[in-house]
Amino acid sequence: MRLWFTILVLALSFYAFFDCARTPQEEVRRFPKWAWLLLIFIFSSLGAISWLVFGRPKRNPGPGRGGRGKIIPPDDDPDFLRKL
């Protein structure tokens, strides 16, 4: 049981660290990117949870995920024109 908890904490820390490292600087919230990386590295589980809750950028829903899609008029829609 203790081994599983340790593996879970390490996996969460690695995921948060690499997720933060791949995120562009201008999308990071609250702190600079280097501060988040340092926070995750020093305080592994607390820093990882903080990154996932407060620092990670908000994901914009795409047109298939409940967001409003852009309406394309028929004369600009290549699929519609192909069917003619």
UniProtKB/TrEMBL annotation:
Protein topology in the membrane: Multi-pass membrane protein
Q: Which residues does the UniProt record annotate as the domain Cardiolipin synthase N-terminal?
A: 11-56
> Does the UniProt entry include the keyword Protein transport?
no
Q: Where in the cell is it found?
A: Cell membrane
Q: Which InterPro entries does its entry note?
A: CLS_N
This entry carries the following GO cellular component terms, namely: plasma membrane
Q: Tell me if Membrane is a UniProt keyword of this record.
A: yes
Q: Which UniProt keywords are listed? A: Cell membrane, Membrane, Transmembrane, Transmembrane helix
Disordered: annotated span: 59-84
- Pfam name, any one: PLDc_N
Q: Which residues cross the membrane?
A: 34-54
Q: Could you tell me what this protein is called? A: Unannotated protein
Species whose genome carries this gene:
freshwater metagenome
List the top taxonomic levels of the source. unclassified sequences, metagenomes, ecological metagenomes
